[in-house]
Amino acid sequence: MDEEAIKFLNRVVNNKDELQTQLIDTLQKTVAVLTKQRDEAIKHLAAWGVAIDVKGGSWDDWDEYYKDVMHRENALPSIRDHLKIAIEKERKTYER
């Protein structure tokens, strides 16, 4: 090992408690963000389901909620991106 690698490893060993605290803090923040996104997605899905159940299954009801999820700027960009990918994948199965 060269001298720089040894210095780096010594810093890691000397600062491990601080690094662990930073890692735990980062993980807790990530969990909070993901929990918020999950809860928002569940809220959207519940609202969509109630609208269809109460208003009926017409295209207008589906269309408004589809547009809300797919085009409105909200806290669900990664979920929206995953949904677009899943939709495209599903479309390909119908094209076969």
Helices, strands, pairings?
Blueprint: H1 3-14, H2 16-55, H3 59-71, H4 77-95
Helix pairs in contact: 2-3
Question: What count of structural domains?
Answer: 1
The computed structural class is mainly alpha
Distance between the termini: 56 Å
Cα-atom radius of gyration? 23 Å
Shape: elongated
* Count of alpha and pi helical runs: 4
**Approximate strand percentage:** under 5%
Poorly predicted regions:
none
Largest sheet composition: none
Say how many strands there are.
0
Percent of residues in helical segments? over 70%
- The mean pLDDT is 78
Q: Could you state the order of secondary-structure elements as H and E?
A: HHHH
What would the keywords be for this entry?
mainly alpha, 4 helices
What does this structure look like?
The protein is mainly α and 96 residues long. It has one domain (3-95). 88% of the residues lie in helices and 0% in strands. The chain contains 4 helices and no strands. It has helices at residues 3-14, 16-55, 59-71, 77-95. Helix 2 (16-55) packs antiparallel against helix 3 (59-71). The termini are far apart. The model has no long low-confidence stretch (mean pLDDT 78).
